[in-house]
Amino acid sequence: MVSTPPDGRAGIDAALVKRLLAAQFPQWSGLDVTPVEVDGWDNRTYRLGDDMTVRLPTGPGYVPAVDKENHWLPRLAPQLPVAVPPVLAMGAPGEGYPYPWSVRGWLDGETAAWERIGDRVQFAVSVAEFIRALQRADATGGPVGGEHSWYRGASPAFYDEETRCYLAALKGRVDTEKAAAVWEAALGAEWRGAPVWFHGDIAQGNLLVADGKLTAVIDFGTSGIGDPACDLVIAWGMFEGAEREAFREAVGQDAGMWARARGWSLWKSLLVLSECIDRDEEKAALNRRVIDAVLADHEQFGG
User: Fold this and answer.
1) Closest of 142, 134, 135 to residue 80, by C-alpha
2) What number of H helices and E strands is found in the chain?
3) C-alpha to C-alpha distance for 164 and 180, rounded to whole angstroms
4) pLDDT in tens, 33-89
5) What is 111-302's CATH topology?
6) Interatomic CA distance for residues 229 and 180, integer angstroms
């Protein structure tokens, strides 16, 4: 019998990874295990030797992603213009760790900080091309957006009550009247298309670059099939000016898709801002900028 790690993260370390490998994949047990430089919250990732990684979910909410990614990434990879994580093996709970885990191939590149990107406009176009290719991928039998994807791919209405609470809490600190109009427009723009693949978290930290160009997209834990509006939020979260316009033109999508995308972006930024507004000035300023960009976008394109 295995038990849950004390806080969902502290129970995961290199020693645990070594024990899991020795018990389940002894052919790799002699390789070095080191934490990656940039890690996520949902999963802990360790580099295994020179050519592999080990990825372990930090809590039960992230467990469905393991089997989903292991099953679907090999099927999606040939249909996409840049690399995605290659799945090499799936591990079972053990050694005091209660969740399934996976071994992946190492992807070269670094997270997409602006100083690592050559042509910013072309980068925005490359991200759009990835999204369009993902939407064209065969969706037969894919996992419909829901709990496993934190409801990405479903209607933003799932977060309606939550969003209205944030609007009430932030009244007087952001333009909640305009924000409410953006949210109402998102709810009113109902998705009626056939389900297509979405990534669910197209963000700077999940995009890898090398030689200034997009080379890989990682972390498909929130992926599935359904409404891909959630994949457009990078338009305000990362891009601005000419980059945003190039992304908008290259990714296409109709007015309803953009309305729902603004809703997704607004929900997330309000959530983070409500948590950090009085204790993290830098993070609060970042989310205020996103909210302002979303409101301006609504006035220009969706008002």
Assistant:
1) 134
2) 9, 10
3) 8
4) 999 887 777 899 999 999 999 999 999 999 999 999 999 999 999 999 999 999 999
5) Aminoglycoside 3'-phosphotransferase; Chain: A, domain 2 (3.90.1200)
6) 19
